[in-house]
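Let us practice reading a record.
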Amino acid sequence: MKISYKTKDMSMTRAIEDYADKKFSAMDRFIDQNDQSVLCEVELGKTTRHHKSGDFFRAEINLHIAGKDLYAASEKEDLYFAIDEVKDEIIQQITSHRNKTTTLMRKGALQIKNMVREWTPRRWRK
């Protein structure tokens, strides 16, 4: 999986990049390793140039998996908390998408099985 980083109104330090790499490498367990078309775009930044009050760090992730685009965003007071939250949200979306496709395949297989049962003579059935 390729991960590309983009920053807005801040500089990307080595510590931030290492932390993000460590957190987003957890997604490898949920993504097919043979699929080379997977692309992960991460944007980190500040929402304001000056800190007065409220959430001001933002983390966004766009994940392109085999015909499906997934997106998650988070705003927190701490950049590391924003990265953690966006990682959890995107993993939840990946597992939800994977479960939906598995369910669709099982429904299709069940329909085919029922059609074959209707076509076979009764004496061949067990």
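A brief commentary: The mean pLDDT is 84.
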